[in-house]
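Quick one:
INPUT:
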């Protein structure tokens, strides 16, 4: 069974940096895209950042310019580099991978990693 495991969350102060990791294991996925999501309101559908197979990326307005999404194909790991953290970034962050195919595509979700930003 395909599994996604997030790590890297924790407690940070405003201005700090964190890097979240999402390791994909248990099988090979014919993926169309990967992304990070959070529950914090204000972002459309909770989207934080998306990475498409063709290489394109998207960021929510709240994190644009501060966060960077990337992946390591050798390690089968998705990353979210978070710089200049703000208290508003406090949330549970979830990794998601979706497959190519008809709508709605099949999705795989991780359990989430908690990020707390406060002084």
């Amino acid at each position: 069974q395909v599994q996604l495991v997030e790590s890297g969350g924790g407690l940070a102060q405003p201005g700090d940096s964190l890097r979240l990791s999402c390791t994909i294991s248990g099988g090979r996925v014919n993926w169309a895209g990967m992304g990070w999501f959070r529950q914090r309101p204000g972002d459309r559908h909770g989207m934080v950042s998306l990475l498409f197979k063709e290489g394109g990326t998207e960021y929510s307005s709240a994190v644009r310019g501060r966060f960077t999404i990337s992946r390591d194909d050798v390690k089968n790991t998705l990353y979210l580099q978070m710089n200049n953290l703000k208290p508003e970034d406090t949330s549970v962050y979830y990794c998601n991978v979706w497959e190519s195919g008809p709508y709605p595509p099949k999705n795989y979700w991780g359990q989430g990693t908690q990020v707390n930003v406060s002084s």
